[in-house]
Amino acid sequence: MSTTQIPNEVRFLNPPSVDLKRKKYCRFKKAGIKYVDYKDPEFLKKFLNEQGKILPRRLTGNSLKFQHKVSQAVKRARHLALLPYVTDLLK
């Protein structure tokens, strides 16, 4: 009989990231953008994950005002079929 040995080390699918906490900033305020265009799907893809869901403020760093504008623009782009509602691999 052969015995399989269990390794003592713990392995993760993705290595845990240990990086410095950087201050989050609103990229719209920094760049001076006042209007979020719903007709630009490549720009709006930055605020979506791989499944097509809108990323929350705590991940993107947007201010509340611009997070509302981004979500409204994404919803309008989905309605016009510029962005998909659901997908497997968006990026």
Shape from CA axes? Answer: flat
What is the CATH third-level topology name of the domain at 27-79?
Answer: 30s Ribosomal Protein S18
Class by alpha and beta content: mainly alpha
| CA distance, first residue to last residue | 48 Å
Describe it:
The chain has a domain of 53 residues: 30s Ribosomal Protein S18 (Irregular), CATH 4.10.640.10. Helices cover 32% and strands 0% of the residues. The longest helix has 16 residues. The termini are far apart. The model has no long low-confidence stretch (mean pLDDT 85).
Key terms for this structure?
about 30% helix; 4 helices; about 0% strand; 30s Ribosomal Protein S18; single chain; about 90 residues; mainly alpha
Brief summary:
Helices cover 32% and strands 0% of the residues.
How do the strands and helices of this protein lay out in sequence?
Blueprint: H1 27-31, H2 41-44, H3 57-60, H4 64-79
